[in-house]
Amino acid sequence: MADPEPSGRVEVLLDPSDDVAVTAGLLARHRPAAGVIVVHPTAGVSGALALAHDVLHALGLPAERLRQNRLTHLATAWRAAAAWALADRIEHLVILRAHRLDRRSCFSLLQFARRSRIALLLVCHTRTIPRAMAEHLIGVRHRIVARVPPDLDMPRPVTPAPTARTFPKLPRLPRATMLHYRADIYRRHRDVFSAVDELYGYGVDAACGWLRGRVPADARGRYHADESLHEFVTGLVRDCPTSQHAVAQLRGAQAGFLLHGYWLQVPFTGRVGGPGLTSTPVTAETVTRIRAAVSHPVLAAGVALALFTGVSLTSFQSMRGGSIPTPCASTVTIPIRQYGRAPVSTSVLFSVPPAARPLLRAAHTFCLALSSDPRQGFFAGIQSVAHRIAEAATWCGITLPRTNGDVGDVWHKRVYWTKFGDPLHQLGPEHTTVPGRSCLSAAPVAAHPSAVPHRDSHVWPGRRWTSNGSLPEISALLNAYIEEDEPRLRPPPRGKPGDPPCPSEWQRRHELVHRHLAVLVPRAGGRPGDALTVHPDIPFALRLSDQPGDE
Amino acid sequence: MTTWLDLDERDDHYLGLSGAHVVATESLLRLRDNLTDVVEARAMMCVHGDAGLGKTLSVNASLRALAPEEVCRVQFRARPTPRDIRHVLFDALGLGGSPPARPIEFDSLLKRALSERPRVLVCDEAQWLSRECFEFWRHLWDDPRTDIAIVFVGGGDCYRVLRREPMLSSRVYVWQEFRRMTLEQVIDVIPVYHPVWAEVDAELIAYADLHAAHGNFRAWSKVTSHVLTALRRLERGEIDRDVMQWVFSRLGGTDG
Questions:
Q1: What's the complex ipTM?
Q2: Which residue, A32, A301, A331, B45, has fewest beta-carbon neighbours within 10 Å?
């Protein structure tokens, strides 16, 4: 008979001599990260509920606060165990002292193994399979083994966690507008400019990578605010320890979009919150702290959600089972709830940090086990969701971030991108010459001072910007910016003689725009008068020059 | 019913006999060697033998010398349950706060405490323990996080009780039986045991052993205590047969 596949396999190891080497050897194989857990049942107690708690404990969850975690009900405890086992991708479950299990425990255990698709090894220190177990193994394909199955010694290789990014400490920095952000940092915070520029370049590179292969906006003026954009921008800032870091990366991303002919609008005005601004990064260490204190999968996910979304805890009450749309839990959508009314159809998507994904997967599985209806409440069965999440956070010793409102107030809800003009870059692998970068311009121009930042010379004039020249492509982009974003700044139509003069308001704005987007410089060649040319901060923002304008 | 013991040296001796010494008998010396190995290996050991042969005294005295800060002694005088053992250990380890309500939580706490530093757990009167209790001890010892050696001490049929449990048979590293002293051992040991016997003729010591003590240390402790009383009451300066007769009359021994 061919060996059954590990998933769903049931084996009984008989060891009548109760050899200490068997127990010690199996305990030494306990490696949850490699998909193997060994349950050492609590002595002196019996019952399926106690066994469920033992399984949870073997999965690395705390033995304390079971009542507070609402895991003192038999079905709930086994549901939680199955959810965690699936999320952690456990493949092998070993139960020591299995000869002491009562009937109910045997039944619950076999059901759990089937639901979790786990290979089960029952270690009995008897000569034959105990009667209570044998009754439940009738009809279950199983076999008796005399030694430890060899695949327990060949567990899944443990993938080392990626090295976490390190972030420099930054002072409070001006947010500025995208076109002058890099220049403002250069002028006012020279001591941290290189650190900020590193983050900025990360954002430029991320934008270039995201745009590669993406179907662009096909017509000027079309606004795109789809979920993939929300996933991109929230994913960009989810690891940022402060809003200073988040803004630097987002401004860089905007520069990357502009280089490819798109305008990425990122609104930071008003009272906004959300990822990067009012969130806290969720790292592997954070998840370890959560799992050490919270054994209910949905509560654990709630703490993680509170950290990486940066929204108020009451926002989560409207979440549904379908809020986690993909099995890998890389994103989560949270409905915007109108106070006192049913949730509207609008929801906001967040990128889930990799470290938090197993928590959300476990919560999702826990939810689905109760009902497969995606409309079912994510926190079903938990009263006072906000209070419970806050309480769970205190168990972990984690301080939840101070938020600026609920999910309807997140900044990325109003993010959009639109086609602007022709790209300064052409995307393609031949342009990726800097290791780890998506586009050549992701590296500062100072890294290659004499090189033209872009290879296609017919697009790029082939010379660096100077105060006497102009960048027709950037000028075109700026004109498009003025037309699209500031239509009131278009020059008024030429009036007939006798028409009233230009409105002073228009004039004021016009000057304002010119001061920010363009400068007047003496004409080249000694010609009289001034010429309008691109504000030097703008090529600097695009990393096409190494000097911004003066303050 | 069940207690944990915080004993000092005087309490080792039966009746707290003043002036008594711990004598380096062959059994004690062998026990000390065995305990050294057991403690080093974080193993299990069983010290068994009839009552009154000096098992507990020997274990206490040896561990006091080997690992004075690491020993937790627990003793049960009726049939305990795993719950009783948990609570006794909770007290013996000096854990603060209230004992947890759930066994899994309780064991998590105990294991954490038992992993902090090496410890020797001495379970006296082990013959009273049930299979459930041994399962609990085994559970603590098998856990890879705990750093413990366990010494079971018991009289009566302690050996039989432990031996019939396969889980202990494969885990007990050393079995040591305490037996009655032979007459030669008595004659060597008793004069060192208490100063009152230091100058006593060997024949009289043999006489006392034959009729009252029978090679049992606890009995010798009782005899010695009565001898001290007799010398005071009868206003005698040394032990003779009359003194021994007086002692026998209290013990129920007879003169041939």
A1: 0.85
A2: A32
